[in-house]
Design a protein that fits this description.
It contains 7 helices and 8 strands; from the N terminus they run E-H-E-H-H-E-H-H-E-H-E-E-E-H-E. It is α+β, with helices and mostly antiparallel strands.
Length: 187
């Protein structure tokens, strides 16, 4: 796929030197990083709130646009952009077909055949970036989105962990999130 290329060893090593590893969610002690949760809500919801606010059909689709706009803004501000994809072949095809149209399914299956192992990729086509992000927002498959000095991790319930290399970057991310109707909470 021309829109996707594999990152170089130097690019991978640069990210690893900043974050310790590509699968950042497996860090034992992210002490040197500033961590928050990108979310539609400014606080962690209790069980009753979660049942009322996020457990309805269509919740993820309703707010997906906010996450896409946030990521596109991040790409404009931090163009050193990569996506880490783990075990892409594990995508559940039934779930994929239930949550995406036939053209999107075809594209994902194409990518699935091209990316056969864990990979750090660069994506030049914004529609592919949106599709990969939508896999995370619709909870089909989670990826890590690296922007040089910070990373956003796909996760359940549109609560995406954000790891920043410093407080200034964290503040910039918080501002971009706010401008897209989102929050980065620390509680």
């Amino acid at each position: 796929m021309e829109a996707i290329e594999f990152a170089s060893t130097d690019e991978s090593e640069k990210i690893i030197s900043t974050f310790g590893r590509l699968d950042v969610e497996n860090l034992d002690h992210p002490n040197k990083l500033v961590v928050g949760i990108l979310d539609k809500y400014n606080k962690a919801l209790d069980e009753e709130e979660a049942l009322r606010l996020i457990s309805y059909e269509g919740y993820n689709i309703r707010y997906e646009k906010n996450f896409i706009e946030f990521v596109l803004r991040c790409i404009r501000e931090y163009p050193d952009f990569h996506i880490f994809i783990r075990n892409f072949k594990s995508i559940n095809n039934r779930e994929l077909k239930k949550k995406f149209d036939s053209e999107e399914v075809k594209l994902v299956l194409n990518m699935k055949n091209s990316i056969t192992e864990d990979a750090l990729i660069k994506v030049r086509d914004i529609s592919i970036v949106k599709l990969i992000l939508s896999l995370s927002t619709r909870e089909v498959f989670f990826s890590n989105f690296f922007f040089g000095s910070f990373v956003v991790l796909g996760n359940f319930d549109l609560s995406f962990p954000v790891y920043c290399s410093n407080k200034e970057t964290f503040n910039a991310c918080t501002k971009m999130a706010s401008e897209n109707g989102l929050f980065i909470r620390t509680n």
